[in-house]
Fold these 4 entries.
Entry 1:
Amino acid sequence: MIRIGVDLGGTGIKTGAVDEKGNILSKVSRPTRPQRHYDEVIADIAGTARDAAREAGCDWDGIGGVGVGIPGVEDASTGIVPLCANLYWRDVPLRGRLGELLGKEVHVGNDATVAALAEHVAGASRGTENSVLVTLGTGVGTGVILNGKPFSGSHGVATELGHCVIRIDGELCTCGNRGCWERYASATALIREAKNRLLSEDGAVYRAVGGDPEALNAKIVLDCAKSGDPGALALFKEYAYWIALGLANIVSTYDPEIILLGGGVSAAGDFLLRAIQSPYEKAIFFKAMPYAPIGLAALGNDAGIIGAAML
Amino acid sequence: MIRIGVDLGGTGIKTGAVDEKGNILSKVSRPTRPQRHYDEVIADIAGTARDAAREAGCDWDGIGGVGVGIPGVEDASTGIVPLCANLYWRDVPLRGRLGELLGKEVHVGNDATVAALAEHVAGASRGTENSVLVTLGTGVGTGVILNGKPFSGSHGVATELGHCVIRIDGELCTCGNRGCWERYASATALIREAKNRLLSEDGAVYRAVGGDPEALNAKIVLDCAKSGDPGALALFKEYAYWIALGLANIVSTYDPEIILLGGGVSAAGDFLLRAIQSPYEKAIFFKAMPYAPIGLAALGNDAGIIGAAML
């Protein structure tokens, strides 16, 4: 049965019709313009859903259901989204309103959880029952599949590994706490440290950005490390170590069959995996037992639509 | 139906017959003497099991099954205990051997998980589906119940929160890594910091131990803090903060309905809970959503027998 998946972000509403195997049959998008009243955003979501069905050649009555991935969490007991900073949302009854507009059952999930579900159904963790997807981007998102189902805890707030403290009294985080893993494993962290360490030297990073800190991005640092620049390489190794410690923490909490890396930083591919492997193995607590291999996510930006349709 | 629960530690084998509600009907114990061959230890476990059934007035044929909590993990796919340092065990087929000796189905679980299960069935987390028990003792043990069942991950190595890194490059841990939560939240950590900070002063702790570092224990530090000694109180507050950060990490990973504290340090009771509450609330990521209250475990040392019987 064909279902509709919606990847709702602060910038865009990306919607698709998805078949049972996770193939996207159509894609429709509209800008979110989140400063509007949420009713207008929800009306646009409904519009993209009907458009996506039509473009896939499906009668609306034949659509099996609708799922929405949001950059936040829903209170599953009420169907209310209590807070979603990127959308300027507070106490929004997304599930109910969208359900009324579409005459379908609507499911809402966290965007990282939804992406993990997509990888589980149609991506790199297919065939496993327990998996974790870690997206290394501006922040660090984590989605967890347990027993083949998205895990979100008792109140929907589980699996925020990016905001687990990994350095007591460490770097100040956007969440107000200090030392969150996100402050060490995100692209933002790599850029911060590159600004701190690499711009005063006459190394490859300095030359790549023409001495302009604002021109720095994660790809430049990763490329300079790949090309063998000693400063960039030393930073990259430390960054990989910080990622690895958090991945070992994931083994010590969820013990999944596989851990996948996604997000912008994961574009570094095998270069990243190789740098992570050794500190990851060293940090594993139960070395006498099997533990999760680290792999790369397969679905990229489509994971949001596919996973939402699978909710 | 009556079942047998075995709490197997490095010092003693403690075994009981337990009814369905978690009441202990009889208790039998023998020294473990772990330097012996494991076959002798397993034979003694079998002996205590039959003795416990007899003392409870149960015919052995009427016993529903046998559970054993161990200070380690079993490879559930093989029934082998690959490594158990406190017992000097390596690759021990506990489940199979004990099953042969007793003619009953045997289940093996990690001791922290078993204690969490006991609290779930007959203790302070009764009535919840998702709970975490944290035992603050020489180390930090954690047991997790998800959907009413013990959670141990894909390979049995999940829920080792005590060995999650909470301070990158922090204190060296017995596991070989640095900065594990156990190094900040255990009684051992409190004693270490008291030795570092409180013995050079002429404060209450110094007087309580007569200036002898070897006389220090967690209870002395906690009692001095309770009595208002400024140095002990300052250390205790920092210690409570370290505990609180790890508890907030538990919310961000498992999002349980309740978190329970057990182990020796939890004897400080409300004094400890009050000190933890404020930094715990501050460290919660999703403050707009409900999150787990912190409570005290109820079953004490009996949890090992009760939970093992419930495996």
Entry 2:
Amino acid sequence: MSKINIGQNIFTQTMPVTLLGTKINDKPNFMTLAWVTRANANPPLFAVAVNRVHKSDYGIRENNSFSINFPSEDMITQTDYCGLVSGRNIDKSDIFKVFYGELEGAPMIMECPVSIECRLFDILELPTNDLFIGEVVAAYTERKYLTDDNLDIKKINPLILTMPDNNYWKVGEHAGNAWEIGKNFKD
Amino acid sequence: MSKINIGQNIFTQTMPVTLLGTKINDKPNFMTLAWVTRANANPPLFAVAVNRVHKSDYGIRENNSFSINFPSEDMITQTDYCGLVSGRNIDKSDIFKVFYGELEGAPMIMECPVSIECRLFDILELPTNDLFIGEVVAAYTERKYLTDDNLDIKKINPLILTMPDNNYWKVGEHAGNAWEIGKNFKD
């Protein structure tokens, strides 16, 4: 095996495609976001990395809240559109049906199989991006996305992003059971 | 559509499966990690969320560096094993062939299609987890994983994790081109 150095602008090899919901000037706004991870076990916290050029950055700071919505594959066109146009120039408030949980500043998307409303917990200011830490207030789905009371990824049918080739992918075949298949390992 | 509240312990709907490389007492250690995201555009920074109960937390603080390695599906058993056993009790230094780039404290895995070495940039201490921010020093692959000089996700064949059902998945069918398919959207 011969390793080659491919530089510094590298990405997580698969990224979850989400729509970040914020309120800007009292209207819902949605931005395509793939730089997101669970960040803390207890309480449940998420981290979302938003470039400060985006209007969503202002929306989160203004309302101390945001939502993370997971679109399904059949929403791919609208989802990608939200990454192409800026809330500075285009009103994105009527692309989706919007609903709210507890937080007025965290509009969520009715068409998305899973939505999470977050209260701003902390901000880590990085050179170009703000890393917003949000505490989960609640998560929402519909019964049709559950199997045995658990979210079923095949029913949700979410999108995965790869960069810098800029492709969307579906979730594929089951590969194994986590915290289980490793028990077969013999060192 | 009728939304139901499914509580607070929610996860990113798909998570990239990685192996976090650290050095502990001068030996390489690897921990399965799926709470990771790119965090900053320029310079390239990653955020990894590590529960403070893990030995890897100590390893990063000790050496101010870590690596992020993306295993392929054929490494699923060893990868899952690294999430089942702790570096506190088990020496995980000989599971993989190890190589180094510039940083002595960031052991990388030869068998992984993609590895990233990171210098510690900042730490955000959250209630149970440390969110380590790492600056990319370099990323490594092999020519066989490239198509037209770009990383090819189908050749890399990485693993995706879903929680709390705890399943590993493969990347599936191509769904569309990002920053492109949305141009077809008519509001």
Entry 3:
Amino acid sequence: MPRFDVISQGEELLSGSTVDTNAGWVCHELAQIGLEPGRVTVVGDVLDDIRDVLGESAARVPVVICTGGLGPTSDDLTSEAAAAAFGQALATNAEALAQVEERYRARKREMPPANRKQAVLPTEATVLENRLGTAPGFRMEIGGAVLYFLPGVPYEMKAMVMEHVIPELRARFALPPRRTVVIRCMGIAESVAAQKMEGFERAGVIVGYRAHMPEVHVKLHLAPELDGAALVLEVRERLGNVIFGVDCGPLAEVVGQHLRARGETIATAESCTAGRIAAALGAIPGASDYLLGGAVVYSNAEKVRQCGVDPDLIAAHGAVSEPVARALAEGIRAQVGTTWGLAVTGIAGPSGGSPDKPVGTVHLALAGPSGTTHRKISLPFERERVLTFTVGAALDLLRRTLEGDT
Amino acid sequence: MPRFDVISQGEELLSGSTVDTNAGWVCHELAQIGLEPGRVTVVGDVLDDIRDVLGESAARVPVVICTGGLGPTSDDLTSEAAAAAFGQALATNAEALAQVEERYRARKREMPPANRKQAVLPTEATVLENRLGTAPGFRMEIGGAVLYFLPGVPYEMKAMVMEHVIPELRARFALPPRRTVVIRCMGIAESVAAQKMEGFERAGVIVGYRAHMPEVHVKLHLAPELDGAALVLEVRERLGNVIFGVDCGPLAEVVGQHLRARGETIATAESCTAGRIAAALGAIPGASDYLLGGAVVYSNAEKVRQCGVDPDLIAAHGAVSEPVARALAEGIRAQVGTTWGLAVTGIAGPSGGSPDKPVGTVHLALAGPSGTTHRKISLPFERERVLTFTVGAALDLLRRTLEGDT
């Protein structure tokens, strides 16, 4: 198997102020098509360091993916380092300049003079279009190696790997085409999924796992002659209803499609998540078809005012309790007049926990035409993770109810 | 400044199934005491790869921190790789064996025979105690370089860095500390910030930039004798009030601190952002001190019901308009009874735009004790970015108002 190296550039990665998630993603995707990861190297914004590692990787492996350092500022040094590493001059690349200018035209903004720098490339580089940002990428052939230079902004980099790098590498190394089926799950840990999938691999089937909080993705990489649908059914037998979709968008999109298809509507009432569930639904284009509104009810007074929760209920059971969750869901449903009312109340931490109700205690409730469903979950994590998993669990309660499986 | 390399070992890091957070942490901690990060390299569980990178780093820099690969299983290869890299034999180290055995005794467990492997070290290695796990670490002196081999389990590794590595390196190099000042900005592009900062660098001052959407961070890396406060003032003269804080948390935390200090409260009314502003405020621990509640008003009916917006106003101006934004802010403030009402209505796209009101048209309004402020912004981006920058702009309108600068 041909090996590849990844080089992640950026002072913020080296200083530890940003965690490098790009390199792992690139390793994963390139391994999927049949390449073997060699080294990942992180370097700062130091010209000689970048130059050296580029030269070393190009001498060692046939494929090098380099991310970051394509911006317009003086600490963006990739182009200069690549030119130095491989003895090329730097010049403004007309095609790259046209792409940068076009990106600004499309945004109806004037291009700052600094951005001309993004079109200055090693003379023998070929440009790679970046549809999502101003920094064009580029490709160099050095000896037997191909080097790809991509922006560090994750979603720009990912799109360019998919559009340019993977198709080219497939062709270059005549890698057998593999189909990848992505099975998206909510409510299962990656390690548990892996355990349940033990022994599933067979000729033409490679299984990969990816935690994408709060989701877990199980990927089947299939030889083209295999029946994907039958294999997915087999996976369903192993994993059950934690699977919310196959080759689909995020859970908020899946529940949105359900709601749109049924002509139904939803409103949310959120305490600890403070709008995050509504925002997840609203992040999906066209959400206004089914998301009518919602209430952020951080204070008890707002729980009473916006959702008509009986203050005595809060006094008797506490704001984080099953009765209050149910009252929130039923209240917001009645107030907004939607098919569904989805509510959450919990303790996100770091403070506010008690022996009785520790941090991570969350009550979910879904009110609908046939009554109200409640779930209590325990998420022994830090605040951000509690909130992320609460959104996932709330949307999954809705999904399971819409699919008739509670 | 002496440089250091970090080597992170483990197939799970290279495959992308685990994100390497160790390396960034080590870089950060060692930079604090005055060492300069050189490279971070991630390698898999391949003996030759580990051996090579150890040899290369030891030849290049005077300090190498290597994490992972000290476990008892066959894919834990660090000790073997270090011996091979530096031409030493392997032997059971009596001190290391005593530590492993003691760890099991303390846990009242029998030591599995496999764990004897954890005490097999290069002959010239010296043992480093691991108080928190079974794998002892070790130290090697190779030429002018010192190499530390630490476990990959983060909390074990971190304790050992604090207990062994940092005190030793402090003594070894006796270097003055270097300071990094992070100046956080909202409402300026990275390239524009860099343009305004041109020529700022001088002896002892290095400037770095980092886009952290929707924020931009300008970092000053300073020699210890320089006056950080005076330099920050100089930066303020160049960048102006896009600076929302220095060495602080995210904007939502900064506005939260302002509100808490003033004993004031806030409620939100969100159309296109669908709860994202409230969620950003609610992500900060202790937000319940000032965030009372909010309304997600996706539908026009909810704008009327929750915020008392006059339906005729919507009919006359459209939901995305200055009058409606103002009415939302004033309405939610009155309904919840807060000091501040923050509202947003806009077109996030991809559909819903018109020549008059293209995608990315957003109206912000902030109602407060002295009246209502309005801002219209244009964000010619895709949906996700429109929403991200809208949250930033809304919180920044609040921040500027609280600081008396609108």
Entry 4:
Amino acid sequence: MFFALEHTDKNTSARIGKLILPHGEVLTPVFMPVGTQGSVKALSHEDLETLGAEIILCNAYHLYLRPGPEVIKKAGGLHKFIGWDKPILTDSGGFQVFSLAHLNKVNDEGVIFQSHIDGSRHNLTPEDMIRFQMILGADIIMSFDECLPYPSKYEDAEKSVIRTIKWAERGYRCWKEEGGESTSDLFGIVQGGVYEDLRERCVQSLCAIDFPGYAIGGVSVDEPDEEKKRIISFTTPLLPEDKPRYLMGVGSPEDLLFGVYCGIDMFDCVMPTRNARNGCLFTSRGRVNIRNAKYVKDFTPLDEDCNCPVCKRYTKAYLSHLYRAKEISALRLNTIHNIYFMFSLCKLVRKAIKEDRFLDFYNNFLNEYNIKPFSEGDSEIGSTFFNF
Amino acid sequence: MFFALEHTDKNTSARIGKLILPHGEVLTPVFMPVGTQGSVKALSHEDLETLGAEIILCNAYHLYLRPGPEVIKKAGGLHKFIGWDKPILTDSGGFQVFSLAHLNKVNDEGVIFQSHIDGSRHNLTPEDMIRFQMILGADIIMSFDECLPYPSKYEDAEKSVIRTIKWAERGYRCWKEEGGESTSDLFGIVQGGVYEDLRERCVQSLCAIDFPGYAIGGVSVDEPDEEKKRIISFTTPLLPEDKPRYLMGVGSPEDLLFGVYCGIDMFDCVMPTRNARNGCLFTSRGRVNIRNAKYVKDFTPLDEDCNCPVCKRYTKAYLSHLYRAKEISALRLNTIHNIYFMFSLCKLVRKAIKEDRFLDFYNNFLNEYNIKPFSEGDSEIGSTFFNF
């Protein structure tokens, strides 16, 4: 059995379960730290293990370009190449091809693009990206999809959904025929922008293929918060109940909770790690921007209620000093804290669901967290002090 | 007792001993990692503890400018401010005032300079730097000295030695009168450039003051290797046998061994950490430049004989990938390895001295290490991929 759904909350669609994967088990709802290039930025694998990571996400697009299939094949797969023996999910690279690469051509056959690293030209089909993910040997691999920006016209979104479905079918066939099933589970990705009928059509077509799991893609692409929520709460219940559901690229603590509320099991997002590197830290009382001058002489921990190694040892004054002095360790300590926060949040979420009190937990969290919701500025896109 | 000399090697001047300091004991010969701004670059204190660090060096010049005396005083001293409870040695800032700051005026009274950070103007006397180090509360503090560049004329070096001696006297008096003795040990710093008679004169004057320990400063300032060795081997035996001897800013593995050979007990240098950040790694078979293309597909550890956490888990191919992908963790993993190498070297050195076979150890090490001494380029000053 690949996914064991264990309990659904009495008052919401929130659910707990377990993914049983070749490299280990993963309790859901789970937040998967993003290790785009085979490394969660600023952390070592030891850090992740200490923090309790059960699965990380890597990106096929980046790894395809560097170090490339040959090196990873020679290493014996991604797990061996990076020295991480717990589960890995690889994203297919659809999102990155459309957001990072210089795109030369997209048609039903596949994509032609130029690397964002060195401008080299690549011609990839959906089958290529499945095959490459099979070389990587991740526990969960993703269909190659077309991800449109927001806003997109209905006609464009429709064409893109049709193409995404076709690519999903081709990828699935390749995965089946070439023995991918023996080492990995392949997820289909639901696209359709903000258009509910397109989302529904995409879900139906993907379900007809019968993937081991399903992801919702194309959200958190700069659409307004209400649109995002509308699409998540519309799409999630359409997905099969007995399969894992993954909301791609989400998110902030509050977005993660909303996803859980709707019945999502898996999340990934660069925000906790990227925010950390920009000095924006999650606490039980809301966000703290460690660059703020008032922390220079604040000799208390970041979050009195936090048991992470950073809060247990260091003060805001020291973290502020490290950031101002541009010390590399600022990036790592901040990241450790934010990742601990996300893991700890998921742990509390799972407990609350188990005890049928997720709704209370959700409301309480938002109340506490929103004491200063964005009061110090969401620096996700802000200053990149370190150019990372 | 502050310094316990335990054994001197039968065939060389190499010696082992123990520093007994307010925050703990330190076995010598010791390599002290440099945490200029209160953080060893790319490492956390937990990393240092895991690696076995017994003492770190911080820099009074940097900490004076940022976060400044007020913040550190409020925090309750440097140990509390940075969250490190083992011994700390603070450098007085003499070297930095002369190398980093924009110098406006030096006279017998003190220095007037502008901060390298924000251009702010500062006027400091030798007493000020002793008082600030007393606020920091380091276990070992250093006299404020004038450090000349190489080459310097005899007349300039002589003037500078006379001033350094005067400043050492004033600093010592201040330290005694204001109760510094109860929390710290003050070292005198021998200057004199490459001139043996000036070095001797400086040693004699400092010994007359009777410091708890002595440092040799003004070496490793770009003088030729032979000059450096000549001055170290000339000056070290002039220093009192029963006091700790500290060779400032040295150095590479081979320079450290030369210092030990001459009877030095303490070393510090940014080279192991800075080289690490530039991809230049120490191994028992010489230096490895991880940027070299041949490591892209090298799936062996950096050093087969090394027991550090990096060599135990990661391959050269992965370290090469992290470096090429500009992952922050490359900086930390490389630094962990180089610091482990230095600590491990000191441990082997202490064992060899204890067993009266330091000379054999020294020769064997150089033979092994010099298989490719600088074959891949000393990148200390080279590429700064990460701008750190």
